[in-house]
Specification:
It is a single chain. The chain is an all-alpha fold and 89 residues long. The protein has a domain of 46 residues. Helix 1 runs antiparallel to helix 2. The longest helix has 18 residues.
Length: 89
């Protein structure tokens, strides 16, 4: 066991501290143990969650650009003025 596992199980580390330590040490851990640590921390996070039944994991591709929002004209929107006069010029 690693220091994260030992200290977390002894409640010397909070969940957020354990995640932070794991992020710093994940590159030095064996791949199998890294999976065990992640499972332990996720399990603790779900156990501490009040709305576990409503937990939803979104499957999103982080490399996709967000959709372009439509232009909605607004009388109070200064963007037209900036397009004609520059931003801070």
């Amino acid at each position: 066991m690693c220091i994260i596992c030992v200290d977390f199980q002894k409640e010397k580390l909070s969940l957020s501290e354990a995640w932070r330590n794991y992020a710093e040490m994940s590159g030095t851990l064996e791949p199998e143990h890294s999976i065990e640590v992640e499972n332990m921390l996720w399990s603790a996070a779900f156990d501490q969650s009040d709305d576990y039944e409503d937990f939803v994991a979104l499957d999103q591709n982080p490399f996709l650009k967000p959709p372009v929002l439509p232009y909605i004209p607004d009388d109070d929107d200064p963007s037209d003025w900036y397009e004609n006069h520059g931003q801070g010029d």
